[in-house]
């Protein structure tokens, strides 16, 4: 059973104009896959909203009521803005704030349920890893990965591995499980020395108390390409496997690590992104797959289409057909750097991978992690 959890309802659950997440994502992916002939209707599970019980596994009731109240009037009280960080430019009041987040979180729980039934599922709307129990943060209002982790705990799972490939550090996830030895958090991301969230995600943050040695950050320098990234991922996974034998893992697949994405300084091709996914599956078996960041809609749709091909066992087509090209061309999105030729994104699905060897800085980082976790 291979399923994509999604809905076209997200078309009407967008962020505010000019917000980086205003772009079509899940709906675009579904339309693109259909146009490419890469998905059948029976492979799509229609997203449902998370229940109150599921949300309360991680979030506080007062915070949820503030989100719900703000959604009803599409406004925010000053005290809510100050206390819960909603109604800001970063985390604006919009249909995505509550209703969109409910749908994305319910979809992640659905992906977990499919896994528990022996299947495999991908929820591209998931991966909103910055939201805290009672505070919005980093474009995220409801932390569906944390809800999913708590749902798995409730089902009796004792050893859960959370792997985050988003270009931005999973600050709220780290804080929530920093003293928990039942959840191992592995995050590859832009170094907080130059990227959001700036205050967390450093290599020395390895957990505290019972959780010491169960939190691994791999903060990478600017300009990371496929070869370097895959080296760092493989070596960090080897370290994790020596320490931790998970019963289940969740993989967050933010596409903002791609070279086309303007909110990160990484330079991965979608072929490198796909190889990262393959590497995790080859080393750990099947997991629970969530989306994440991603602010270039065309790059995102192509990358997640590749992930779906792998999950569903399909051969990757070499070219994008005319119907699918039209789907991509119809997106209302302006390139930030018009001097760069991006026409390849409308012709081919899989990019050419870059095998650049890791620079000394990346090798030294891995050696430091080995010293921190294995010696």
From TrEMBL:
InterPro entries per the UniProt record, alphabetical: AcuC (IPR003085), HDACs (IPR000286), His_deacetylse_dom (IPR023801), His_deacetylse_dom_sf (IPR037138), Ureohydrolase_dom_sf (IPR023696)
Metal-binding as UniProt keyword: no
Keyword match Iron: no
Pathway: Ketone degradation; acetoin degradation
GO biological process: acetoin catabolic process; epigenetic regulation of gene expression
Annotated Gene3D superfamilies: Histone deacetylase domain
A molecular-function term among this protein's GO annotations: histone deacetylase activity
Residue ranges annotated for the Histone deacetylase domain, each copy included: 19-308
Any Pfam family: Hist_deacetyl
Keywords: Acetoin catabolism
Family of the protein in this entry: Belongs to the histone deacetylase family.
Listed name of the protein: Acetoin utilization protein AcuC
Organism in which the protein naturally occurs: Hydrogenobacter thermophilus (strain DSM 6534 / IAM 12695 / TK-6)
